[in-house]
Amino acid sequence: MDWCRYRFRSVWRLAAAPDAVYAVLERAEEYPRWWPQVREVVPLDERTGTARFRSLLPYDLVVTAEARRQDPAARVLEIGMSGDLDGWARWTLTAEGTGTRAVYEQEVEVRSPLMRALAVPGRPFFRANHALMMRGGRRGLAAHLRT
């Protein structure tokens, strides 16, 4: 097992139409407004930007993200990442009743020297940290969509 590789999957059920959810998720530069753990997003050009994250652990992760797929018809958003995390993340949105089922998938390898050094003992904490970040994002997005 490679202790520095992670695969995550989260499912968010949201009380808003898929197109409305997509419209919010495609504007990554606005994530810090509603997702507390996304501390900063700085666009570099039309397809790339840097993002800084911090959840419960007192440690920032910084990545450069590049849009790989922006498909409003299929309601899929995918980015490639490099920096402290190297890999990809994808949102897939589908209608569910009058709301949306948002599936977030991520496959990354940790590149941060500190996280690599703590890979084995830190793994349960890193996974819990990610879960808390996703919970904060779901709550923030749901509240944002209600306004």
Describe this structure in words.
The chain is α+β, with helices and mostly antiparallel strands and about 150 residues long. The protein has helices at about 20-25, 30-35, 115, 120-145; strands at about 5-15, 40-45, 50-55, 60-70, 75-85, 85-95, 100-110. A seven-stranded antiparallel β-sheet has the order 1-7-6-5-4-3-2. The longest helix has 28 residues, at about 120-145. The chain is globular, with a radius of gyration of 15 Å. The model has no long low-confidence stretch (mean pLDDT about 95).
Secondary structure layout:
Blueprint: E1 5-14, H1 18-25, H2 31-34, E2 38-43, E3 48-53, E4 61-71, E5 76-83, E6 85-96, E7 99-110, H3 113-117, H4 119-146
Antiparallel strand pairs: 1-7, 2-3, 3-4, 4-5, 5-6, 6-7
Can you give keywords for this protein?
147 residues; alpha+beta; 7-stranded antiparallel beta sheet; 4 helices; 31% helix
Indicate the proportion of strand residues. 35-45%
> pLDDT under 50 segments (min length 5)?
none
Tell the overall outline. globular
The N- and C-terminal alpha carbons lie at a distance of 44 Å
Q: Could you tell me the mean pLDDT?
A: 97
The major sheet is characterized as: 7 strands, antiparallel
Radius of gyration: 15 Å
The arrangement of helices and strands along the chain is EHHEEEEEEHH
Strand line-up of the largest beta sheet: 1-7-6-5-4-3-2
Helicity range: 25-40%
Number of E-state strands: 7
Number of helices: 4
What is the SS-derived class?
alpha+beta
